[in-house]
Amino acid sequence: IVPDGPADQAGLEPGDVITEVDGQPVASFEEFVVEIRTRRPGDTVTLTVERGSEEFEVDVVLDATEG
What phi, psi does 43 have (nearest 5°)? Predict the structure, then answer.
């Protein structure tokens, strides 16, 4: 999680596990990346997140990455 990046601004924390992107299950980091790369910077995605024994949703506004 990049300080002041989209995930940080959405309240995600190290150790959170993302299980869905806009209702689409993601079982691995690779599947997460595939889902995110179909979106554009500025799009808002809803992530389903597990933190410990809790599950919740957060909206994240995607940002552009360099490199």
Answer: -70, 150
Give start and end residues of each alpha helix (H) in 1-67: 6-9, 29-37
Q: What is the pLDDT along the chain (67 residues), one digit of tens a residue?
A: 889 888 888 899 999 999 999 999 999 999 999 999 999 999 999 999 999 999 999 999 998 764 4
As a whole number of angstroms, the distance between CA 16 and CA 41 comes to 22
> How many of the other CB atoms lie within 10 Å of CB of 12?
18
Which amino acid is present at 4?
A: D
Name the residue type at position 29: F
34 is written with which tokens? 């595939």
Tally DSSP H helices, then E strands, for the chain.
2, 4
**Which 3 state secondary structure label does DSSP give 2?**
coil
